């Protein structure tokens, strides 16, 4: 559980799409929006913890969620004294149709210190805040974003981008050559029954809520057999009830896949099988290991994205590495080869993912362009498009030195890189149709309306 001070800092430090961090009332209503913003800036720059605390909504103060010392600690840690107010603007004004509620959104900009040698220009601290007029008073209702921003003007591609792209393309080339080995996994999966495992996995969720503990799931848990029964099906049916790496769109009602549940039951299954081995029941143990290979096959056969590929390969690797100890000489070579290929595939998937996932200073931009251009690739293309959308509309995270200076994420804005990412997205969108075109549009919309570099819990 976060401390009260940590909760307070987090609520003010990162982009927030939902949840409010407090409400500030301003006297002498009704005031103009410009005067309201000016009053807030005065409190903020003066590091007036007592003034800020006294202006907070009674529900927050009365509930003892925040103390004055929490506010003081926040102001010290955030180094408010190093910020110089530059300007503010009223972004938009909103009024309910019946006139009962009035709001305005404002952006406040401060000049900050230099945060790292790699970013020699002064940083910018930007706050986007929503105010609401209620009972004749303006209340600070919600922060949409509070970010430190640095700028660079490096040209595309940088050396780091070239190196990352070379590594990414090399990993992809080997993965394409290795393939998915459907025949090998089918041969080692044991008996398969026709049908979908969606019901078994839905049932397993309910069981998991009662069987999971601080150390996972016990090796004698009832849910193990439910998992193994589901793994024996020809189809996992996972995408019927769960979405993959990304939702299909705003109306996608499917749930996120409970990765922790599958992980815990796979580990419990392995422990159960080893107990069977100790009791001399190697036949039952082998059947469990084969079921884990089959479970991995189900994940790999569904176009869920990188996580489906990584977890599916991991389950196959674990099952094969245990099975190889128990099979006879005639099958041992086949199982060992399968385990080695699964291990190699897993390393390559993780390498490729790291090239797309490391967005520091736009490092992943060139890899993302390559991935996004791979037609008929359900694993890497969605991640490439998502990465391009983030870099185009949000920028990139700064290095660790800069982040350590402010105790949180610092964004890097480079117009050259952002224009490059946006131009590739536009080109892909113009050349695509159907699901791909819709996915690009959905990603652009999602990224522009959500916090992608940090998750903030509601203030309460």
Explained architecture:
The protein starts with a helix and ends in an 11-residue tail after the last helix. Strands 1-2-3-4-10-9 form a six-stranded mixed sheet. Among the domains are: 4-151, Nuclear Transport Factor 2, Chain: A (Roll); 190-326, no CATH class. The chain has 19 helices and ten strands. The chain is of the alpha/beta class.
Question: What's a concise summary of this model?
Answer:
By secondary structure, the protein is α/β, with parallel strands linked by helices. It has 19 helices and 10 strands.
Strand order of the largest sheet: 1-2-3-4-10-9
The top level CATH class name of the domain at 4-151? Alpha Beta
CATH architecture of the domain at 4-151: Roll
Helix content: 40-55%
The end-to-end span amounts to 13 Å
Low-confidence stretches: 1-29, 455-460
The largest β sheet comes out as: 6 strands, mixed
Q: Which structural class do you get from the secondary structure elements?
A: alpha/beta
Shape: elongated
SSE string = HHHHHEEEEHHEHHEHEEHHHHHHEHEHH
Q: How many strand segments?
A: 10
| Distinct helical segment count | 19
Mean pLDDT: 87
- The CATH topology of the domain at 4-151 is Nuclear Transport Factor 2, Chain: A
Query: What's the alpha carbon Rg, rounded to whole Å?
Result: 27 Å
């Amino acid at each position: 559980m976060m401390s009260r001070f940590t909760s307070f800092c987090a609520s003010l430090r990162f982009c927030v799409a939902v949840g409010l961090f407090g409400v500030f009332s301003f006297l002498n209503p009704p005031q103009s929006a410009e005067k309201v913003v000016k009053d807030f800036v005065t409190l903020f720059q003066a590091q007036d913890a007592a003034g800020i605390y006294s202006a907070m909504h009674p529900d927050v103060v009365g509930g003892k969620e925040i103390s004055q010392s929490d506010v003081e600690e926040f102001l010290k840690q955030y180094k408010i004294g190093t910020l110089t107010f530059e300007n503010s603007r009223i972004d938009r004004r909103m009024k309910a149709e019946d006139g009962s509620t009035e709001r305005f959104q404002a952006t406040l900009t401060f000049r900050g210190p230099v945060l790292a040698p790699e970013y020699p220009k002064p940083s910018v601290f930007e706050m986007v805040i929503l105010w609401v007029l209620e009972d004749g008073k303006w209340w600070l209702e919600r922060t949409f974003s509070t970010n430190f921003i640095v700028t660079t003007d490096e040209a595309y591609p940088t050396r780091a981008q070239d190196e990352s792209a070379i590594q990414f393309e090399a990993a992809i080339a080997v993965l394409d050559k290795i393939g998915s080995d459907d025949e090998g996994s089918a041969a080692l999966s044991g008996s398969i029954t026709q049908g979908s495992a969606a019901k078994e996995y839905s049932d397993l969720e309910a069981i998991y809520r009662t069987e999971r503990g601080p150390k996972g799931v016990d090796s004698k848990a009832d849910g193990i057999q439910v998992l193994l029964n589901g793994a024996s099906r020809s189809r996992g049916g996972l995408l019927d009830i769960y979405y993959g790496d990304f939702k299909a769109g705003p109306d996608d009602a499917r749930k996120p896949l409970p990765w922790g549940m599958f992980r815990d039951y796979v580990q419990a299954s392995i422990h159960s099988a080893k107990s069977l081995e100790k009791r001399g029941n190697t036949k039952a143990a082998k059947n469990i290991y084969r079921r884990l290979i089959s479970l991995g096959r189900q994940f790999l056969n569904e176009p869920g994205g990188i996580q489906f590929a990584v977890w599916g390969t991991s389950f196959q690797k674990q099952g094969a590495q245990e099975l190889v100890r128990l099979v006879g000489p005639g099958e041992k070579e086949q199982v060992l080869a399968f385990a080695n290929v699964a291990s190699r595939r897993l390393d390559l998937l993780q390498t490729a993912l790291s090239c797309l996932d490391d967005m520091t200073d736009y490092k992943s931009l060139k890899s993302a362009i390559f991935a996004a251009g791979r037609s008929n690739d359900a694993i890497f293309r969605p991640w490439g498009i998502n990465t391009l959308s983030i870099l185009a509309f949000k920028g990139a995270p700064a290095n660790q030195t800069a982040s350590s200076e402010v105790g949180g994420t610092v964004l890097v804005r480079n117009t050259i890189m952002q224009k490059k990412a946006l131009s590739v997205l536009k080109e892909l969108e113009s050349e695509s149709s159907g699901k791909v075109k819709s996915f690009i549009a959905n990603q652009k919309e999602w990224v522009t309306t959500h916090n992608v570099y940090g998750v903030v819990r509601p203030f309460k």
